[in-house]
Amino acid sequence: MPENPPSNSSADTSGSSTSQPQSNTPGGMGGFDMDADESCVLTINGGTVTINAGGDGIDSNGYFYMNGGTVYVEGPESNGDSALDYSISASITGGCFLATGYSGMAQSFGSDSTQCTYILTLSSNVSGTTKPPRLL
Questions:
Q1: How far apart are CA 3 and CA 22, in angstroms?
Q2: Given 3-state DSSP classes, what are the helix, strand and coil percentages for the chain, each rounded to the nearest 5?
Q3: β-strand pairing of 63-66 with 89-92
């Protein structure tokens, strides 16, 4: 992770939101890949983000930082997608990140993270409707 990553391309959530995927197109394969772009930074500092992912849940072609707030990712249901997908690095220093999804491309946060995370991966599809637990 660079000492001072670019901040002009970051997204900051401060309220509650719900995201729906725009397509089922899978993102990069994670790790440093050909689509990696050091100018891409996704930052979540607070609020609640709920994602019902048909493809990748959180997807950054660069860096992902979570400093606060709550993120729920439901899905993906494809082995070629991941609840958390980044190309360079991801770090969590605050907040809560809960994700479920297929395990084919599962990624987690880097070793420089100071906050615990819980990422549940599935080796096969499970019928029925599930909702992530709500934190108290």
A1: 33
A2: 0, 30, 70
A3: parallel
**pTM of the prediction?**
0.67
Six-digit token pair at 14? 């401060």
Q: Which tokens in the block code for residue 10?
A: 């970051």
User: What residues have CB less than 8 Å from 109, skipping those under 6 apart?
Assistant: 66, 84, 90, 91, 92, 97, 115, 117
In our burial notation (b when 16+ CB lie closer than 10 A, e otherwise), range 12-49 reads: ebeeeeeeebeeeebbbebeeeeebeeebbbbbbebbb
Distance of CA 58 to the CA centre of its chain: 3
What single-letter amino acid sits at 132?
P
User: 10-residue block means of pLDDT along the chain (136 residues)?
Assistant: 44 41 35 76 96 86 95 81 89 91 81 79 65 59
Distance CA 109, CA 86 (A): 10
